[in-house]
Protein 1
Amino acid sequence: MRGFKDSAISEKIPFWLDPRKRAIFFQLLTFCMVGFLAYYLVSNTLINLERQKIASGFGFLHKESSFEIGESLIPYSAASTYTRALLVGALNTVKVAFIGIVITIFLGTIIGVARLSSNWLVSKLAAIFIEVMQDIPVLLQLFFWYALFCETLPSPQEALTPGAGISVCNRGVAFTIPEAHPAHRYMLLAILAGCVIIYLMRRWARKRQEKTGQFFPTFRVGIALLLGLPFVTWLTFGAPLKMDVPVLEGFNFQGGVMVSPEFIALLMGLILYTSAFVAEVVRAGIQSVSKGQKEAAMSIGLRPSLVLNLVILPQALRVIVPPLTSQMLNLTKNSSLAVAIGYPDFVSVANTTINQTGQSIEGVALIMAVYLFFSLSTSAFMNWYNKRVALVER
Amino acid sequence: MKDVKWFVVVLVLALLSTGGMAVAGTLDEVRARGVLTVGVNPGVAGFSMPDEKGVWKGLDIDTAKAIAAAVFGDASKVKYVALTAVQRLPALQSKEIDALCRNTTVTLTRETVNGLNFVHPNYYDGQGFLISKKKGVKTAKGLKGATVCTLPGTTTEMNAADYFRKNGMPWKPVVIESNAELNKAFFAGRCDVLTSDASQLAAIRSVAPNPDDYIILPEIISKEPLAPVVRHGDDQWYDIVNWTVMALIEAEELGITSANVDEMLKSTDPQVQRFLGVNPGFGKALGLDEKWAYNIIKQVGNYGEIFDRNVGPKTPLKLDRGLNNLWTKGGLMYALPFR
Amino acid sequence: MKQAVQAEELRPPVTSIGVIGWIKNNLFNGTPNSVLTLVTLFFLWKTVPPLFRWAFLDSAWHTTGQACREAAGACWSIISMNYRFILFGFYPYEEHWRPFLAMMILVGLLFYSRDRNHWKKTLAYAWIIGLFAMGLLMKGGLFGLPSVESTQWGGLPLTLLLAIFGLTAAYPLGVILALGRRSKMRGIKVLCILYIELIRGVPLISLLFMSSIIFPLFLPEGVTFNKILRAQVAIILFTAAYIAEVVRGGLQGMARGQYEAAESIGLNYYLTMRLIILPQALKIVIPPTVSILISAFKDTSLVVIIALFDLLKTTQSVLSNPEWMGFSREAYVFVAILYFLGCFSMSNYSRKLERELSRGD
């Protein structure tokens, strides 16, 4: 429909034969059609809204939501506004997507490497995992994990305790956490400072290595910094050791941190499904680096860890990052299926909002806008990272 | 090739716009189509649920059948569209369905902001709490800190939020879109309490692995008149659906059942004669066949029969008539006069 | 590594050939690998036998729901007692042979199309006739078959219908979008990029919400499409954006010389694309297209959320029946197996095709 030229007419009229004018004509035509279609749909919608006296506009955002949300990262109650309810949903989506992405990359890499293992058993098991997880719809997996979680685990009264301070029941998993103390804030600052120092150190180490060829163990020093700085901070604050232990009170556990089964089921489904794809991506990336590279690196006397760090990984990452980006985006988008098992993500909250206000157009538009924002910002970040990786490779 | 494409585009647009111009009444549309389209719940035992052969059964389904019987004289001419809670109102607004029989609560907002009209309720309900006996809770006031299972975006969710807020009790909702998943979560112990309309609670309790382990708390925290819905602005269609529900109740009041309706045709009671169309008048007034009420009762039965068949004591739901009994027997079912 | 070499006098030691040699080479070469093998074996020993017991030994296969609750293992009765509703949904019970036959035709056609030697004109005709026959079987109304409205279609046929029509209708749209994205005309290029990126940026479920909740508001009063068709449109629009990206990859893979050669013999844009570029580009992208078909097949399960009775929804409907409540594991495993069979055979085929194509012929 778009941009095909018609030879029958063009032979008669010379005007048509000028490609530039023709291009303008076709573009105008396309724009007119798209514009007309848009106008047609919008006018219909306006007429329909008017006729059925359906309210429109985003005025409802300031009204009281009067529904409760199961889990929230920020204070929220039924007396809060719809805006706040939607924000809670968006943050819940970010939470599951972020944690999901981190674990998926980790697990996917392990499975991808396992797939390439020389151990037949491990390699075949990884292959089976990849094939099975890829071939079962993620929604079905979510339903399955949720059912399994709810139907097999005991009630809070008979909760299992697999480890000290952890209780597992069908209300979720309760963790013991250190009781709030001002030291924690400073420990967080220490970690941030550690990150900055590591970044600077890496730059310095790289420059030095390029100049002098001397190697600096950034990784080990980095880990030491990352663990050491917060630890020293903790000690200077008198090493507060008080723990917030979850205790069964009334119906539920009080205190500690409670992770809901919906969240766990969603996370598990997303991670298992996506990590199968990530494993394939990682495998392909590693296989894309030719054997000669490894042999050449070893022949100039690099240690195996350096071979991996300096030769294999930079080249493999170049292949891995673009498809990995799209897998991360898929995970974020698939997190919208939370609505089916009752995790209050953005779609779920927006759904309730649509239901209560009857303003479906605004609700769906919000859903699309938010996911578009997530997708575009993730891909922007990954593009930036991709460029860095590409530069490193040179 | 191009011309063909253009032709198609123009044709489609022309078709669409002419479709927009010819706006007929719902009754005419339904008649022209030859089948009534009704929105129903995808699965609530006793109200609307497919059996193992894929045949819809339930109180709401029978209400839909009654409308079809009134319009076509044939209760089978119904097409059911399964709708989730979010979809139900837009589907009606956009004319995808002619009427909605999907345990929908009458509220002011829905009648005004959403542009809908509710007819006479076909079921009076109220929201309650279902809880396991093991929890040792005897009253809803003891639910402080409880985890509560509820369906999303329904009046149920808001009522629960209001109730806990009013009583200053913290709580945790677990909100799941589908009834099936919700019930499963409750029985598995995912939540302490399940809140829903009392009829639902009875239904859910009846299917529990061990029904005696669960009790319905005495508090009813809201009024839930469930009624079929039609769009604003088509009064004739509203009348038909409304008086179809009335006819079901009136028939029970008059003692007409699907078994005795043929004998009742010979009745000398003028009220019965008018009702069944032996003395014509009502059918014409509604724009229907004079035998409309006869067809409803003959093919679907009166309200009492429908109730007993789908949710009554002999069904797994084992519901009492309660509020849904005739007004003469202490209930709220009160047919306005057929005059 | 395992062929027994025909040596007269000096055979290799037993430990390096045959079963033992293979085990030694693949499972116990080096300490870390041996430990890994042992750990894995222990893990398998702990998980597989109980699962086997649950699934096969202690299970109930064709009983009532009540009897199932007493069985210690899996309750496969939920499948054997309800499989017709799960597979065919609301399709009239007496007519179930029709969707069954239609699916058999589909499977037959797919099977026949596997072999690339059969890719001729006759195959295209076979598909056209086959699709027509399937449509006729499902819809009825001719040759004495009672008419069955598309709103009554459900279960597996609906899943297949959404996936296959989703892909076939999305394909031409995707090709047009890909060409538009690579077009020299700025305006058209921008429009195509906008469409592709917008669609790829949002989850399918939001498009399904749009199609099921607000699409009716876009149309003039009185014009409605049924829910299945609307969901189908959403799936088509969604899949098209992904196909466009795959096809773009194929187009980018074409050597510049191909365009120049076409131009030099005086072909215009349309003919260049139709005769030179697309036939080659589309051939390159057959394997990724099959992966899109696989995703489309899996993604159809999302229509559950808008209450279309596809395979997953009919299963859930059975699960909400009091008699069968609580057997979700068995039911979901059954559905998972169906999906797995479909996806696995497709991905297997795609790999085989990839090998054949890369062999270069």
Note: Chain A touches chain B through 53 residues (CB under 8 Å).
Protein 2
Amino acid sequence: MNRRFSWFNATSLTLGFAFLYLPMIILIIFSFNASKLVTVWAGFSTKWYGELLGNQAFLDAAWVTLKVAVLSSTLATVLGTMAAYVLVRAGRFAGRTLFSGMIYAPLVMPEVITGLAMLLLFISIGLDRGVGTIVLAHTTFTMCYVSVVVSSRLVTFDKSLEEAALDLGCTPFDAFRSVTLPIIAPAVISGWLLAFTLSLDDLVISQFAAGPSSTTLPMKIFSSVRLGVSPEINALSTLMISVVTVGVITASLVSKRSIARQRAEEQAAART
Amino acid sequence: MNLRRLFLIGTPYLWLLVFFLIPFVIVLKIALSDYAISIPPYTPTLDLSAGWEGVKSFFAALDFENFSFLASDALYWKAYLSSLQIAAISTIITLIVGYPIAYGMAQASDEWRPTLMMLVILPFWTSFLIRIYSWIGILSNEGFLNQLLMWLGIIDTPLTILNTNVAVYVGIVYAYLPFMILPIYAALEKLDGSLIEAAEDLGCSRASAFWLITLPLSKPGVIAGCFLVFIPALGEFVIPSILGGSSTLMIGKVLFEEFFSNRDWPVASAVAVVLLLILIVPIILFQRNEQKQREANQ
């Protein structure tokens, strides 16, 4: 497309990004508000962060959330990478259509339905609801996102490299470990990060899958949000936003550098 | 088939069968069951332990009681209709808001584009719940929007926006805007600039060149974006329950309350089944659009 700077474009970009970012910026600023009134500025203070760190219920929920996110995203990365490999490389097998359907369906499924279905399964097989069931539920819906991310990388990847390794006497597992995995690693890592943030974020599916004893941070936020805005939630949100922002920016810098390195290696290989 | 291949295919396959497909079969089964005051709160009409006799009596007694209940109670079909309406209206607003942003991004210089792209994607990584929550402080009666409008002298008394459908529209547009921007941007970025130059050389005004060339060529992106907003908006639960009021009827919220407050599992399951049936149409249309795109790109 030809580039033409115009006032129209500048205005729409400015307004658009203001719309996307102002609510979060306001939220962050008012988490440092001294007053309990969340819409009236009464001076700078970090007291809500102090109260947040002293609130045992929030700390417990944060710990549950973190545990669930680490466990489910790791499990989802393993299963999702396997699923992507099957989709792209395994060729034909019985029930392939059903398999790819089950990979893509959770992406468009309303969370209330996935959550309800999961809960009914857990009840009918008599599984006690708690951290374990949240992990199972999160793994199931996030593995599909992982497999979409990883398979998009696998599709562009030159299959002959794998075949060369096999010809040179590698076992299929060795070929996967020493040839395929290093090349798809950036996609696997971003798949893990995506699964991790989705799990960290999820409210609806957790609400269904969690028992009365286990509460995640989003569930805690949701139940207090229903009572209105509170400065403590603002402080908590600010912490969560900063963690994610730092994580995403670091991840994109790392992947940019690894792409640059890969390109440099390819050029060096082409020269020799 | 060797063992390794069996393991590779079998592991994710089995996982999805157990934790994705079977749960839906259970939902369907409970949707066809009768409500009962017990734990669990339904009596199954399909008794597999009775073997073939059980299956026969299931089909003999098969009624779509819960579904006819959904059809007879105005609450449910009103909720479906109102979800469709809310999802459609917010999709159109998202398109109107998102298109100029995608257009501006596509025309930005090469150094700027990765940054702009990052700025669109970043909110997507930030907690959905928090992003919706941040609007409470803006839209409430003593919130920032009312403060600003009163300070500007546009209004004298605060507008009631929070806990109305307007707040739900704002929430959906805000939450799903990146889904609209990205496919439209992808379509506009590929667009061949010389076509527009040619149109202008041939005497088109900028506006009519946009109308005759840019807009039709970005249509696949527009269609993809609309489906990516419409499909999740239809089953939305978080936005109507945080920003909407008691009069906001959305089917996701109805399902949630039917299950957790009324504890009527059979009806909640029937609500889910009907919602799925409604969703199949836009999902198939969306996939057809994607398929067409893939073929066009090859």
Note: Chain A has two domains: 56-228, 233-272.
